[in-house]
Amino acid sequence: MKKRLLCLILACMLLSTCALAYGSGTGEAVYVNRTDLAGGFTYENAFCYSSSGSRNESFIIENSPGSSVYPIVLACDTIYGGMNIKTMINYAESLGYNVVGAVNADFGYSQTLIPCGMVVEDGIYKSSPEGCAAVGFTDGRAYASVKPEVYITLENEDGGGAVTTTHLNKTRTDSGVWLYSEYFSTVSTRTSSSGWYVRLKVLSGELTLDGQMQLEVTELVEGEKSVGIGEGYLILTASDAAGEEAAFSKFEVGDRVTLSTECSDAQLAAQDWVTGSGNILVKDGAIFEEERWNSTITGVNPRTAIGIKPDGTVIYLVNDGRSTSSRGSTLRQLADDLLSMGCTTVMNLDGGGSSALALRMPGTEGFTVVNSPSDGSLRSCCSYILFISKNAPTGGARNLFLSQNGAYVLAGSSVELGFAATDNALRTVETPSVTASASRGSISGGVYTAPASAGTDTIRLSSGSAYGSGTLHVITKADSLSVTDAGTGAVLSSLVLEKGESFSVDVAARYLLREVYMDDSAVTYAVSGSIGTVTKDGLFTATGSPGAEGKLTVAAAGLSYDITIKLESDFADMAGHWAESYVKALFKAGIVTGVSDTEFGPELSMKRCDFVLMLYRAAGSPAVSEGSGFADVPDSAYYASAVAWAYKNGVTQGKGEGQFAPTDTLTRQEGFTFLYRALGLLGLSVRDGDVSLLEGFADSASVADWARTPAATLISLGIVQGSDTGLMPGSSLTRAQMAKMLQSAIELA
Q: SS in 3 state form for 67-126?
């Protein structure tokens, strides 16, 4: 593997882009690209390879204290229920926040999406920690709390007595007393069993982590499963099964009540915004209580995490997983990665399909989800950390960006550069006239030309008082070439062409799974064999003799790619034949061949093995890992894989006693049955035909019971028409009849 070489080549990239360090957990980074979106607010995309060769891709926000961008926490519009990340951003903006990005936060209960841990929004206490760790934010700085508790005491000033609980806006259980506020749900307490309820009107104060409120009892309810809460009210409740009648008896309508809160962690109580989290993975620069980590998620998964550095800088990391482009990481690898980035505190947030990072990217309207959530779509989550700009949009260009930032360019090739601009609030604005300069290559008229050697090139941008920079990575050799038909987009590997037929080639190079910019002149073409000619632009024309074979070789970016080409044979015995078009289509697709270079043999009988082979080719010749299991089908036979495929997929069961009889003549009803069973494998989904359709044929009684539904289905699809003498089920299937049946089925798929 070229891992060490890549790391050496790209070491300068890591330095020149001031990137975070990688290497301790998921592996040493081979690609890092960094974009300074605002002062102290940076987006970084990186991927690395582990020692076993698995790929891992990360998406990171680095937010420094004093930046114009700071984090807040929102648990959607109510504690009960969730939103996906784009809906969450829209909701936050409806509240007046100038959002520039968001990342998912706490774990939530699967059915209700109530956060598992604590929620504080702008100082308002909205949901209890329930034994979970928490992270708080104030003025852009973050603070981690291991297992905070918040004690809520309601003291009756008129009747005496007090009730203490730690449960706020969580699903009520049959143990203890629970408190609900208007922030829980606009519907009700959503409790599911009979219980008692004390409705308390808020007279003064707000529910905070360390403070007091003055309340008045306005209603006592017994026996209900749930009650509405209402704006400006709290509900104190317990289920009947909890045995908390003594607590209920301490309240009467009209009583004045003082509610006091006390947080066990005074530093957390001073935070403006708080979200619960999963395990604290690193504390004071060392792995923390690894034996207590959630064993159900310690394996390889997509991840979301927070890392805090000694200077107060906060790292927000999303790690893709469960795909070929990114494996994900274990909790220990996640901890080690963030340690290597200089974090001394690391907290695991909700991962898996929930992991998502959205940003307001320069040059685009709205928000871009920069990672690839493993669900394939955005999952609703219970809470989010949102990045808010302190600045009001001005509409004037303040920051400049390179549209191709982070791209790979083949040495010596050129790229027409694009630019984008944002204002001081990171809103995309009209891009002014930009002056660009390169540290290694050259720029003329907005076109960048890469130098002859590999390395990183810094592109500096300016326009009046607006500035910015970007990075281009120059390479001399790609990892792979993609060669496709310019007209259809189909991947080219082997072709059968008619004389005079032509096609144009599109060539794309990729390096570390990313497309490489390269000039058309960097691609060369060569033809071997008397099959045709190719222009310098990749237009191939077949000019050779029928039956000629050869290759078109495409070379670019240090790699070559061969397309095998065969010129279509002119079968003398098919000229003017009723099955000529069917045979020609199947031959061109590589499904059938002739009995010689000049003859197809349309009236010859099909062998059982040859028809199965043609069905196998029509299905794309899928890989077969096991033998057929038939004693009369040797593994070395040209049809062995086809028979094994057909048996595995129920196309044939053989003739009994472990025999397939590969060289026996195929009867028409056997052919009907084989094709009928293969329709789904050819991509055709059909309903069985009504067997009454057979009654229109004089010899319908001769059709075997096992072939009646297959024959009727093919008749209903127009694949089989029979003849004046009937269906002839016991007669041999000719090669011409086979071609008509098979091609007709393919055209229906």
A: CCEEEEEECCCCCCCCECHHHHHHHHHHCCCCEEEEEECCCECCCCCCECCCEEECCEEE
Q: What angle do CA 395, 398, 402 make, to 5 degrees?
A: 110
Residues 338 and 417 in one domain: no
Both 141 and 253 in one domain: the answer is yes
The Cα–Cα gap between 379 and 259 comes to 37
What is the C-alpha separation between 292 and 690, in angstroms, rounded? 64
- The answer to whether residues 190 and 253 belong to one domain is yes
User: In whole angstroms, what is the distance from residue 376 CA to residue 59 CA?
Assistant: 17
Domain-terminating residue out of 521, 537, 567 = 567
Residues 599 and 695 in one domain: yes
Report yes or no on 334 lying in a domain. yes
Q: Please, which pLDDT band fits residue 20 given cuts at 50, 70 and 90?
A: low
Which pLDDT band, with edges at 50, 70 and 90, does 15 fall under?
A: very low
Q: Name the residue range of residue 587's domain.
A: 572-748
The answer to whether residues 599 and 651 belong to one domain is yes
Cα–Cα distance list, 310 to 17, 64, 451, 589 (Å): 22, 11, 40, 64
* 228 in a structural domain: yes
On whether the CB atoms of residues 297 and 331 are closer than 8 A, the answer is yes
Alpha carbons within 13 angstroms on the beta-carbon side of residue 279 total 20
Q: Which helix (H) or strand (E) holds 588?
A: helix 580-588
CA 572 to chain centre: 53
Tens of pLDDT, residues 273-318 = 999 999 999 999 999 999 999 999 999 999 999 999 999 999 999 9
Domain shared by 700 and 589, yes or no? yes
3-class state of residue 154 by DSSP: strand
pTM of the model: 0.79
Please choose, from the candidates 174, 221, 223, 179, the residue with its C-alpha nearest in 3D space to the C-alpha of residue 79.
Answer: 179
**Local structure of 739: helix, strand or coil:** helix
Query: DSSP assignment, residue 491?
Result: B
- Residue 529: inside a domain: yes
Both tokens of residue 239? Answer: 């289920």
What span, in angstroms and rounded, lies between the C-alpha atoms of 678 and 676?
5
